[in-house]
Amino acid sequence: MPHATTQIACHDCDLLQRLPPLKPGQSARCLRCNALLYSRKRTSLEFSLALAATGIILFAIANLFPFLSLNAHGQIQDSTLISGALAMFDSDRPMLAALVLLTAFVFPLLDLLGTLYILLNVRIGRTSRALLPLFRFLRSIKPWGMLEVFLLAVLVAVVKLGDLATVIPGVALYSFCLLILTMAALASSLDAHLIWNRLSAP
């Protein structure tokens, strides 16, 4: 629970003020402009923990099984998320391949694994200040996880290839779509303020 000495700056008027202890479901508003400062979510920790675990499972399925299959004149070629990046390396596009690999694989995986690790430690009450740099790092790389952009690029490619070959969606594509929804729900349910306070507690 946030301590009474916790300070927070209003996102609208920048007034620095003390945040009182809040119970799940309660909210605090700015003393000057009445903007919402913080809303303590109900069962945020348990729900976020379940979403992080689900996201890791979906991430594994999305990378272990075929993403798309192309049927051209009877020849079927399967592709995965990693094979797309490797194909760009083979096509002498290392910078683009590295960008795809980082934004569609490395950063989302680090986000999920790191978030699950932190939530597990907070849930069992084993917190330390050593976890603060990890949580800060995860918050900084979150904008670089561009799964939605990658999915949009895939859909555009599917439309363009529709006249040349039959595109067969694989189980990984459905898992990838569910992964995007799961990570969006995780970002919405995660009570970052609560995590900061739990990790920084003496």
Task: Describe this entry's structure for a reader.
The chain is built from seven helices and seven strands, in the order ββββαββααααβαα. It is elongated. Mean pLDDT is 82; it is low at 1-5. The strands form three sheets. It has a three-stranded antiparallel beta sheet. A two-stranded antiparallel sheet has the order 1-2. A two-stranded antiparallel sheet has the order 3-4. The two termini are 13 Å apart. The protein folds into two domains: 1-40, no CATH class; 42-200, no CATH class. With 202 residues, it is an alpha+beta fold.
How is the topology of this model organized?
Layout: E1 7-9, E2 16-18, E3 27-29, E4 36-39, H1 44-64, E5 68-72, E6 75-79, H2 81-90, H3 94-123, H4 131-141, H5 147-161, E7 166-169, H6 171-189, H7 192-200
Antiparallel strand pairs: 1-2, 3-4, 5-6, 5-7
Helix pairs in contact: 1-3, 1-6, 2-3, 3-4
Span between termini:
13 Å
Largest beta-sheet characterization: 3 strands, antiparallel
Number of helical elements = 7
Tell me which oligomeric state these chains represent: single chain
Helix content: 55-70%
Low-confidence segments, ≥5 residues, pLDDT <50?
1-5
Overall spatial form: elongated
* Order of the strands making up the biggest sheet: 6-5-7
Count of spatially separate domains: 2
